[in-house]
Amino acid sequence: MPVPPPRSGRAAAGAADPEALVRQVLRDPAWRDAWHFLRRHLDRYVEEIVAVTQVPAPTFAEEPRARYVASRLEALGLAVQRDGAGNVWAPWPAPAPAPGPAAAGPVVISAHLDTVFPASTPLAVRRQGRRLYAPGIGDNSASVACLLLLAGALRDAAWTPRVPVVWLFNTGEEGLGNLRGMRAFLDACPVPPAAMLVLDGGLGMLCYRGVGSRRLRVTFTGPGGHSWKDFGQPSAIVAAGCALARLAALEVPATPRTTWNAGRIEGGTSVNTIAPSCRLELDLRSEDAGALAELERAARGALEAAAREEGVAVHVEVVGDRPQGALPAGHPLVELLRAAMRACGVPAHDLPASTDANLPLSRGIPAVTFGIRHGDGAHTLDEYIEQAGLDRGLRLALLALLATVRWAEAGAGAGPVAGPAAEAAPAAVAGAPPPTSAGRVPPRPARDGEAAPPGED
After folding, report:
1. Looking at the structure, do residues 361 and 414 belong to the same domain, yes or no?
2. Mean pLDDT by groups of 10 residues along the chain of 457 residues
3. Which residues of 250-287 are buried (b: 16+ CB within 10 A; e: fewer)?
4. Domain identity same for 306 and 333
5. Are residues 179 and 73 part of one domain?
């Protein structure tokens, strides 16, 4: 299926000078007040990162962390929504939309809840100098904490955007989660989003090209038998080994970058049993949908040839399908993020990646993924983030959100849309009923002291 072209909105919005939009935001009292709040609460940000990290959230078992996030949003007075995929989201209270032929699509800012680590993994955060160590702390606990702090800062600033804005904490980004949370959210959107900002990865990462992937579970089955008496009988493990040798001999293009990986293998019964079954899990990726399809065709051919050679059966099941999609490098949303990064002193590194943004990009919805923290060791037990630079990551996230909302207010959400949700009945906020506060902003609390920054799957 061809990827629909990204929506560009009204001509005026598409032609808006990104630098000028960023300058407008930097003069906005909401920016000033929210940034003032964030600077005063950097210690709270670190505490929130630690708290989120220490709540387990394996893919398919994110509920404990989802409940924690929901409670934090409710404490800010937001109308929290849940769905069958385990997502948590909250529409920002906003004025009732002006009458018109269609409701505006929302700006969505998101962070995935799940981690790659099983629930039994020790998650206590260890502090060493200016580093914080714990599994999942960078991917993606810091981003979750960032969104929670942004919500608090904008509540404090009594922010009143003129388009719907949604905070989304989604499930199923990692591994075999297959983007189930993002997929469920977008499928339920009555109006496709005007833009989506995805927080994931290291500070400086800018991703607007989604790497497509196909994940295959391959099962070889044979008759089995005794290693001595039935020597010579077909072996499922030998077939899997032959298949891996054939896969290793495949030539894959360097441009567009295309890769494969055998991530798991299991099978057999005992050391003296001819293996009756063996299972592989393969990850196929490419920046180009055509190259990915060709790689899958070649991989399936290698698997079938190995099965024939050994005399066993083979069954291939697709367990993950991340669609490929991209924005042009000069798309207004990409240029807007570049301008925000320059304003924050963050060098931009354009990196294609496999993130939650793949799905909206594949549906023609403008989306970018960017990072908000420094660190390393993602997907390992020695994962860490640096406390240095957390303030710049917060500043970037705030500026990117406010500038994107300003862009959407200028008309980026209008015009024809792409995707199956386009025919659904419009609503003020995507995928959620109008907030119970009838558009009122929660009251601003007194300020403290007034009386006296690649992640990817």
Report:
1. yes
2. 44 65 97 98 98 98 98 97 97 65 82 97 97 98 98 97 96 94 96 96 97 97 97 98 98 96 96 98 95 97 98 97 94 97 97 96 97 97 97 98 96 40 31 34 34 47
3. eebeeebebebeeeeeebbeeeeebbbbbbbbbbbbbb
4. no
5. yes
